[in-house]
Protein 1
Amino acid sequence: MYNLAILVSGNGTNLQYIIDKIDTGDIKAKIEIVISDKSSAYAIERAKKNGIKTLILDKKNLKNNLSDEILKNVKNCNLIVLAGFLSILKGEIVELFKNRIINIHPSLIPSFCGKGMYGIKVHEAAINRGVKVSGCTVHIVDKGTDTGTILKQKIVTVNKNDTPESLAEKIHILEHKALEEVINEYISGKIDPEILKR
Ligand code: GAR
């Protein structure tokens, strides 16, 4: 079985979509564990409701040890998926899981990404800049912040009436699909081998 670890910090709609797609057989994997860096993350409730093992590793308490604690709990996972996870992974986990950690980001990287750019802030920045298109990016997690190899991007048109909230809503739908596609590409060995050699 292909084992996933899903890392979350918030509402968990991306997590829910993956759970649902596993249920329907569209993603042939098992979620081994859902880890949150925030005790209040609703994503944890979603996981529990579905009988999935959960773990809260509070970033406020763990500070610089967060990544190492995560590593201890994901050792038998094939792929780590950051699905609305707002801490930066550091140290050994990034090396040991090289090319096997992916993140979903709600903009077209390299626009509106990097430190401090997450969630609704990304959409506020995009609207303020007056972009005509935005979207989402699934990328490999490396030592930097949103700097790893881009695996997939999906695009939406930004209309003049869009607000950060309406844009977030449109992009969320694309995020779910992009994550599903990339996870399935990993499972079926379809990720470009040249990318995985890097
Ligand atoms: C998503 O929009 C995701 O792209 C974003 O957080 C949201 C989580 O939604 N991630 C980042 O901004 C990472 N830099 P969810 O909890 O409903 O899946």
Protein 2
Amino acid sequence: MLPHKQIELRLQQAARAVLPDADVTAVLVRPCPDPKFGDYQSAAIMALAKARKLNPRQLAADVVARLDVSPWCEPVEIAGAGFLNFRLRPGVLGETLHAALRGEHLFFATTTQPRTVVVDFSSPNVAKPMHVGHIRSTILGDSLARLFRLLGHRVVTDNHIGDWGTQFGMLLVGWKTMLDRAALDRDAIAELERIYRAINAQCDPAKPTYNLATHEAARAELVKLQQGDPENLALWREMIRLSQIQFDAIYGRLGVKFDHALGESFYNLRLPALVAELMAQGIARESDGAKCVFSDGALPPREDPFLIQRDGEWQANPQLIQKRDGGYNYATTDLATIAHRLETWQPQAIVYVTDGRQQLHFQQLFATFRRWHPELTGPVKLAHVWFGSILGDDGKPLKTRSGENVKLADLLDEAEARAFTVVSEKNAALPEAERRAIARVIGLGAVKYADLLPNRQSDYVFNWDKILALNGNTAPYLQYAYARIQSIFRKGEIPKSALGQPSGEIRLATPEEIALARHLLNFGLVLDAAAEEYRPNYICTYLFELASHFSRFFENCPVLKAEPAERASRLALCDLTARVLAHGLDVLGIETVPNM
Ligand code: ARG
């Protein structure tokens, strides 16, 4: 077992020995923020003390008295308000690296408690282009799914496509009255968007383009669709099919796969019974002819998503589940979706990846669900993993020069084109096809990494030069570090088969070697923390630091020219670094190339 897992396990046992009723699953070990204090750190004892109103330092001392980690660590130190600091014993580093070379692990362990996790992400809307808001959901969601899978969880990915709703009334009118077939064949979503916009402008009473007859026609087409009119159903299916082709093209480029794409319409048949059930249980009630969920007063107002503060007063902020005209909405569908997922996959967690503007929706959804199924509140964790916007250089949400939403497909095209210029400047001699292949990996990697690197809850400014830079915290920099290691192997004519079979011990003599080795050991801890908090940016930061440690090592420690035992040990460090880089990038959905 990996040292950090051993330490964590022993720490949990010691905590349980001192506090027999404590839930020790949250007793975790993290990388020490400053190597001065050690390799690993735990803040968990302070949290346990706080919950029980105990003196944290005293509790820490009691736990440490029961804790034996001497096979791996120097004596444990209690610091500050009750942090525990662990420093690995010198031999442990080398032994752990050696085990990694033998293929026993790559510094992370799969979980001992596999869970089924549903990841709901991307979820674009039919007949609308995927825009940069969907890019973050797609990229973040995909990397979370990859991460959970790597850690041994059972992952179900489900694309909750927006394929139902009032927009179809307008689209049907547009299709029947103004469709340009040739345009539809060229770019279906663009044409669907055009007709949608044209009709939508006529259905908005606030606009000068308003047209009562069109508005009524759209309403009538929608009702016909909802009542199962065969012609409208066929057109609606065609619009979904055409959109799906374009979505799939993007997913193909991004290397994103879904296990399921059950759109919103999949749940239509469940909605009436669902509303009836919530009404019967008194969770929803009638208000002005509509059906809504109101606060049950169980939460303090500040934490109650069904209350809102207006003019210093708490007022009702209900969640609508059936409109006055009998129609259902986004929330109703999402409740039915939870029910379906629970029945079908029995998950222990459902993770939703959307932008931050949907926070209230999900708070209300989760609260309604807990009232509906109180028995599942503990066993099923619902998480809204939200993110901020992508901004242009002007600090406003990213738009094209003409002020339109940036389409994801165009963004990816531009990324590849710009990467091609960069690659061609560096490797003019390579055949064009090879340069294109490298540019694809670099361009897509740059876009993905730019999206994953910032704290997901903050907005970030999108800048081409910054994200494509070969030096800086970028994907190309990490891909370059990987390629550089491969070129060391090529130069030294080291066959792949020779790597991973260390003849001697791993020697960690210089400060650069030790720093690199210690950082390699942190990979698993960082993966655990990223999964725990749904923050792939931890992995980005880790990989960037890894590449930087590697650079310092490589500048200060000759590898190919070192004497044989040292050379083997240093080549082993190179190999492990390359493997962790490739694995880490793969979790982020980013590919590597052997040569760039
Ligand atoms: N289609 C929605 C949108 O584009 C996102 C759906 C997210 N998933 C969910 N279960 N509500 O904003």
